[in-house]
Amino acid sequence: MPITKSAGKALRGSLKKKAVNDRRKKSMKEAMKKVVKLVKDGKKDEATKLLSVAYQAVDKAAKTGVIKKNNASRKKSRLSKMLAK
Question: What are the chain's domains?
Fold first, then answer.
């Protein structure tokens, strides 16, 4: 429990930021899972169409600081590598 008024404000702000970050991370993970599932089912054409959506979600997460830049690059690389096989 925050003691001072400013600590209470900081807590409210951090909870809002956490909610936004969690939403961004969840949308990124869901987009990636969709692509992976389609690849595993052998539907590479549909997976290729969803790849740009997954890339966009990963890039937005990296831009806003939810994940780091190299982490985003690694995720994108692994997705494209999956489609290449």
Answer: 25-84 (1.20.58.110)
